[in-house]
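Thread: Modeling a multi-component assembly for a lab meeting

Hi all, long-time lurker, first post. My supervisor asked me to bring a structural picture of a complex we are working on to next week's group meeting, and I have zero experience with this. I have the sequence lines for every component (674 residues in total). Could someone generate the structure of the whole assembly? Inputs are pasted exactly as I received them:
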Amino acid sequence: MIETKLHGDVLEIVLAHPPVNALGEAVRKGLYGAIADAQADDRVKAIVIRGSGRLFSGGADITEFGQPLVPPALPEVVDATEASAKPVVAAIHGLALGGGLEVALGCHYRIAARGAKLGLPEVTLGLLPGAGGTQRLPRLVGIETALGMIVSGVPVSAAKAAEIGLVDRLADEDRLVEEAIAFARTLNEPRRTGERSVPADPALFERFAVENARKIRGLDAPQACMEAIKAATELPLDKGQEKERALFASLVAGDQSRALRHAFFAERAAAKIDGLPKDLPLRPIARVGVIGAGTMGGGISMNFLSAGIPVTIVEMTQEALDRGAALVRKNYEATAAKGRLTSEQVEKAMGLLTPTLDFDALADCDLIIEAVYENMAVKKEIFARLDGVAKTGAMLASNTSYLSIDEIAAATGRPQDVLGLHFFSPANVMKLVEVVRGAKTAPEVLATGMDLARRIGKMPVVAGVCYGFIGNRMLIPRQSNADALLLEGATPEQVDRVHTRFGMPMGPFQMADLAGVDIGWHRDPERIDSLRDALCAQGRWGQKTQAGYYDYDEKRKPSPSPVVTEAIDAFRRKAGIAPRAISDEEIIVRTLYTMVNEGAKILDEGIAQRASDIDVVWIHGYGWPRHTGGPMFWADQMGHETIVEALERYAHRLGDAFTISPLLERRPAGSDFP
Ligand code: 3HC
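Re: Modeling a multi-component assembly
Sure thing. I ran the full set together rather than chain by chain. Output:
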């Protein structure tokens, strides 16, 4: 866990706890002991602390949170490091995050490899830096920079760290240790950050809170971070740290941090495929084909182009092909205009794109993704054709949002090579990819799909075959209840407000307006069976026509629509429904609890491997508020009995086909989803 080596008069202490040198009990004990031993060892004049493997340290061991603390606590270790009578240098490569950076802040000097990143990401776990970070960082880099780093949680590069005074020197990675030792040897005195003071400037805190109000609304941790940093300006180190500890203790025991820690581990668990060996050989993917250059096909292509993987994109007409390629370029150029890409990077990505009308050009692709509109007959025809064109061993994927991968696979003579890769719109932005495992999908095809999705920066989740897979299947009860609620007396504004208050980026009707009210519409203006049909028939297709469930101005700002109110009234009259007052609680039960219920069915049927995968789908595909942990974790926290009781209470309004998931009902009281 801790290795030491004496280089003449400099002691090298190495954090050696793969994979991320987390500062768990044994590492803390080892480091504390090594620092103490060094004080008593006359041969040692100075100390260098570094990490083994690919990084300095990923911080405190998150799995220990919520467990009884075994001393020495990390703040004690950091304090002991700072108190060292012999100069201590942190030699940082890879990452120094959270408690890892706090250890480095306890050191008297910091030298970083040029590629290193340093940050305090605790806020993303619903915490604050609890080992002196909120006290030492402002003393070192000033309040404003410290506020920015701690409240956002975003790490800075080594170069930036040098610029703001967080590190003293930069080195090439292969010379880091050598230079750190040589540097340590030149030092005579410790230099303690904790002994500095930082001037108070209350106006700065107020300004920061106002500027960041939207980002931090409803979250406990950013507020606590600001409070702790303020203490650094008012109190000596030890008193400031007491305040920091108290805030940390209350956050770590709180619901938000528990949920955010769950989300962290859920994301990592999602990468694991049950029943498959970890070291299964993958299929090489050097070139990707995309069928369809619409919004989806273009967005999907961009992910690969940005990752340096060449893409052949196929369309039926020159016009559609040109439009698709132009849209890809436009998106890249918009990113470049924001300064997030250079024009060379844009040209490099565009240079990897081969637009063509020739279907046979897909013959040299290792993975081909079909991204045409949702129609089984069309998809089957495409896959049958692909079967004749694709090379042996190529993976064939459909981007369908709902349809059966098994039926699509059956159109080919190689169902083992077929899978679903369901990207979410906009596909170049949204992180989620449902990797759909057909009945006959070969294990290495599934594993390659998962690996590739990670390589292009996505968050893949394995899903089984059913209508809508995990995410969209759960949307079905939500939408049907939201629609019914409008007829029974709610307004789109009320339903949406309940969702946005809960923390969703938008409610069901705002989402319908954004996605297009006309999606899936039968396109017969005479046939009006639903409110949606009525809106579509009037050309109210959503934001794109400046009218949907809401009216929109030129800046896409929504306002309640009298036309929609009238359309709802007309429907109520036709159906003989007398509107009643709908409570927010009813909206929550009917649109959110029913989703949990559907999630439980999905889990029970084995469509999702684990409850936490469902949480990842909703957090990354639909913006479910991360600080509630996702729908299934949220339900666990609430207690399944609460959900079952409420669903039973509203069962008479949930339609004849509604049933409570056996999994939800049969789990013993107080237990969580598996
Ligand atoms: N504690 C415990 N386990 C950790 C961990 C941590 N701090 N960081 C990573 N792990 C585990 C992961 O769960 C994963 O386990 P698995 O293999 O069983 O799934 C394994 O280490 C490898 O992690 P990743 O798959 O995430 O590896 P990457 O190379 O993709 O990423 C990383 C490395 C950027 C360090 C990333 O793991 C990360 O962001 N870790 C958390 C960083 C963080 O938030 N640190 C602050 C912790 S809180 C703290 O320090 C409080 C202090 O102020 C008192």
